[in-house]
User: Fold this.
Amino acid sequence: MARFDVYANPGGHAVTTPYLLDVQSDLFDGLDSRMVIPLRSLEHFPQISLPLHLTPVFTINGADFLLETPKMGAVPQRVLKVPVMSLATERDRIISALDFLFLGY
Assistant:
């Protein structure tokens, strides 16, 4: 598993939130869980005003998805199968969203 890999969401909300972004450090690959952030389809996201640096938008397979940083949580590592793609090139935007969530800036 690699940090910033995107996985298909195996959960019940996969229609509206088809992907999960792994944000856990690779130093903790031995744990049986991974910290992930849901990637929600923009077409299913209510029109509420959230700061873009908290919830950046990424394009995956030609569609736009909002990173729901405030809904980050742990999932069992076993549910994350084959990565769909990597967002490692977007590292700075992802880390900025996490910093904003935890530090407020």
Observations:
- The first strand starts at residue 5 and ends at 8.
- Residues 20 and 38 are 5 Å apart (CA to CA).
